[in-house]
Amino acid sequence: MKSFRLTKMLLLTLTVLFPLCFYLIFQVAPTERIMGDVQRIFYLHIALAISAYLGFGVLFVSSIIYLIKKNPYWDCLASSAGEVGLLFATLVLITGSFWARPVWNVWWTWDPRLVSMLILWFIYVGYFMVRKAVSEKSRRARYSAIVGIIGFLDVPVVRLATKWWRSIHPRLDRQEGGLDPLMVKVMLVTLFTFIVFASIVIFIRFRISWAEERVNTIFNEMEVSHG
Amino acid sequence: MLTLIDISKNYGLRPVLRGINLKIDKAEIVVLFGHNGAGKTTLLKISAGITPPTRGRVVVEDQVIKQGGIYYLGHKNSLYSELTVMENIRFFLSMRNGTAMVNSIEETLEEFGLWQRRNDPVKALSQGMKRRLALMKGIISGASLLMLDEPFSGLDLGWKDRVLNKLMALREKGTSLFIATHLINEGCQIADRVALLERGNLTLFHDKTEVNESLIQERLRNEVCR
Amino acid sequence: MLTLIDISKNYGLRPVLRGINLKIDKAEIVVLFGHNGAGKTTLLKISAGITPPTRGRVVVEDQVIKQGGIYYLGHKNSLYSELTVMENIRFFLSMRNGTAMVNSIEETLEEFGLWQRRNDPVKALSQGMKRRLALMKGIISGASLLMLDEPFSGLDLGWKDRVLNKLMALREKGTSLFIATHLINEGCQIADRVALLERGNLTLFHDKTEVNESLIQERLRNEVCR
Amino acid sequence: MKFVGNTLSIVKKDILLEFRAKEALSIMVFLSLLLIVVFNLAVDIDKDNVSSLAPGILWVVFAFSGVLGMGKTSLSEREDGAYLNVFFSAVSMEVFYIAKVISNLIFLLFMELFTIVSFVVLFNYDALIKGLPALTLPLLLGSIGFSAVGTLFSFLSTGSRFGEIILPFLFLPVVVPVLIAGVSATDLILNNTTGGALLKWLKMLAVFDLLYLTVSLMLFKHIVEE
Amino acid sequence: MKFVGNTLSIVKKDILLEFRAKEALSIMVFLSLLLIVVFNLAVDIDKDNVSSLAPGILWVVFAFSGVLGMGKTSLSEREDGAYLNVFFSAVSMEVFYIAKVISNLIFLLFMELFTIVSFVVLFNYDALIKGLPALTLPLLLGSIGFSAVGTLFSFLSTGSRFGEIILPFLFLPVVVPVLIAGVSATDLILNNTTGGALLKWLKMLAVFDLLYLTVSLMLFKHIVEE
Ligand code: HEM
Ligand SMILES: Nc1ncnc2c1ncn2[C@@H]1O[C@H](COP(=O)(O)OP(=O)(O)OP(=O)(O)O)[C@@H](O)[C@H]1O
Ligand SMILES: Nc1ncnc2c1ncn2[C@@H]1O[C@H](COP(=O)(O)OP(=O)(O)OP(=O)(O)O)[C@@H](O)[C@H]1O
Ligand SMILES: [Mg+2]
Ligand SMILES: [Mg+2]
User: What is the 3-state secondary structure (H, E, C) of D47-105?
Assistant: First the structure.
């Protein structure tokens, strides 16, 4: 119940944070000189990317714990976090595309950052394909945990892609003169909002699937005792 | 040897096993009976550690696990169908580091009627021959605990008898056996204890002295025939 | 119904069947016995037209072939493991154009103890349940000739009896059956004629009146036990 | 027209299996996306060369994803000998073949549509969308050819010891004419529309389709009849 | 050093199986040849662009043929539950994994050598032969990465309902770093030899190999331990 109160509180803060974010993005943040208003996608874009990493990170950690503890609790958490991560990763691809269209004049280009992100997306689609492909519960948990662990090795690749390969995708640490301080502040607020948001979504998703799991268990117990 | 503590297993919402407790001692043969779908295969797989139970614990004596002391034979035979009989056996033994009585392979092959087929690929054997080969692997494995799921399926009458004798000889050497079967006569003949799996519980449970009473066998038969 | 004329089969240099002649009439049950590796499966597959013989001819009455009048059940069950019990049956019947008694499916499912499992995918059934389903398909198929290879394998005692009764009821309706099995009692119980396959030949061949003499059964048992 | 009903039953069952097990189609779709990405890693595709590379890449992706997907649909028939349901039925092997060709064709067309859409998005190549109406005919004809050959060979390969893996070797060399005609027709449509030459390639596709279909129709029963 | 002996036994068995059944290796070799030909149909390779296309095409072919071949080697363990021979033995799953990685590595290297030779012959591209000594290291490192991931995932995919077909999806995205590093290193060697940059890619290959090997080694037993 304590955790439930926490969720409630966080949800409440979100009702403040989200409007604040959008106000900051569309009213406060300065318009970028070259790209214009479309640059405002940036705040969502990067916040979504970090939230996706967060989802995959939670998946990674809970997969490891699952393999050690073999408690379905962790499998539940892993798949919930994976769903959220995949959702946000999809949104990164979409917002990126919408940004690329006016700026680079294409929906998609074969840039290392973009490709590595797409590959990451493939990996987690593969994760859910494995979950679909295995019906026996504990086996599904083990197999998907393995994919989740190996797959996470790709996240650093996405992060470092712009460093390793020649890339046209912007990098903040390469920005000449640095980012406008106001932009940084807006970005940090958006980032914070989305991290809270992603955590809550993961948590709620997890509570639902865990409740489902427990209902099933209780059903079983009933059948066991009544024959 | 093997202790099952409060083992339960559900598939989805269907409970198959409900709190099974069982202990198998050294040099003991426990035979498991039950209707189709009673959960015999499930219980054997859980005991062997191939399937995890939903609840409960399987305890196997330490020295048994360490030296590959378990041999499990399921509905499948675990044979490489492209390799010959001999190659299958050699590989099997090489995985057990000479725990096995390697020198007696030829003799055992002869006893199992597979000597002439030793250089044939397994896929060219008949149903019954494959089963025989899989059983033979268990017997030469040197394992101290054998778990056999319907070991006699596909064997003809003659081979069934011979395999029964082999299994009893194995017990004399201190091996424990956990067998699931539908054959009541044969099962009771070799069992030290029999168990009946019914609605997820082990009902009926008899040891040596009782097993041979025809009354018990009659009851078993009635139970399984219902 | 079915006539086998001088059927021979070699695998490589190994002769398995050597000139088999056999005729199965309408409403007749022929049961085939033999050691492991005697060639029962091979003979059934040849009769069903799945494997070509090295020499000889299989003649099936015209009207039998035309309307899908053969049902063959081998060691495998021919089920789509991802589809449910019901879906498997529906597809099977749709391939037979209502030759079958479609309206009695539910009743038959009940009789075969599969009614509660009708919406479960076949892969979730136990060994014995799958075999039962495969047998049930044969019984509702409306085929006039059933070829069954070890039909009772994996069935428990109760179901074995019930399936035996079903098969006998089928014969009363004019269906012919060609069955290979290791179970001498059960085989002799339903057989109109029994045949023993030995070294590639059909030795021993007895019709109705003789089959029930315990002497014959004794001899069969001795032969197969050797 | 009983055979129309039978064909539909089989197609319906295949689509049901697809929904249940999500095999062939989802595999084709994802594989095609992945192939495009991998292709791009190997050969830098940009604005300048996309229109000259597109036809080749698309058809290679169709062929590859297609053949692997088709392998899957026939595997579900081989497993547990499920195709025997049709083999021993009133439905002829020709009808079975036609039905499988149709199921595969449906899956192929879905996959191709998806591939084209992803290609347009990934390479920012709008000409492909504009050319889509004109592409319908070569796509349909090409897919019929793929399906005719793929269905035949996928049964052949799953019946062999190698399993599905041998399929690409059999399939790809044989469909090279379809591949070339398809690439050429697509090239003409995307890059310049001179009607005469296009007709030539379409004719070639139609001729090969007819050829493959009739020959495969005659050969199919020999594959399934072991 | 018992585990060296065990590893060798398993590798020996795999090579024996390969000789007997000609599965993984021959599939890899033929598929790579076919892929090169198909690539050539899609992208016209000529004297001018061969040196820029060669690295990409070669590595994509290695990855694709490799992953399909590796799927085959684990299938032979899953079929009939043959891997249980190792599961219930004195040999640890880590040793089993290492042995399978070695077997797969051997097959991969053979296939790569063959692919390179055919590439040289088909496109008359001698620079590749001259660069072969320098290519050895990136090839070896890349193949170790492929084998480490491929072995793990091939067991995973054959244990799932999709079978081998899901394997490419899991494998290809994960090995993209190896693929890119391999392509880049090969490009540098074939087209200009500036040592510094090459070292960077080799380091990257080595790091990923180590990463994949250690992580897979820890994860493997969870796959096989049903
Ligand atoms: C489909 C297209 C795109 C994808 C998949 C994509 C993906 C990503 C990802 C994954 C990140 C997080 C990187 C990290 O910090 O690890 C990111 C950050 C960023 N993206 Fe994109 N992006 C796309 C298009 C664009 C476009 C068109 C622009 C602007 C021209 C852009 C500008 C940025 C910026 C400024 C950042 C923050 C950079 C940093 O963290 O150093 N992106 N993008
Ligand atoms: N993978 C599975 N998914 C769902 N249910 C399953 C699965 N495996 C087994 N079951 C169910 O568990 C029950 C027990 O099956 P099990 O195979 O253990 O029976 P059994 O006693 O071995 O029967 P048989 O004598 O027919 O071999 C059956 O009702 C079966 O349908
Ligand atoms: N594909 C094959 N290649 C070579 N030999 C084979 C093949 N199939 C069967 N045989 C051989 O043919 C003989 C008869 O086999 P078959 O399977 O018909 O025997 P069976 O009577 O059915 O035996 P079981 O009771 O064990 O099922 C055996 O010696 C077997 O080894
Ligand atoms: Mg069972
Ligand atoms: Mg047989």
Answer: CCCHHHHHHHHHHHHHHHHHHHHHHHHHHHHHHHHCCHHHHCCCCCHHHHHHHHHHHHH
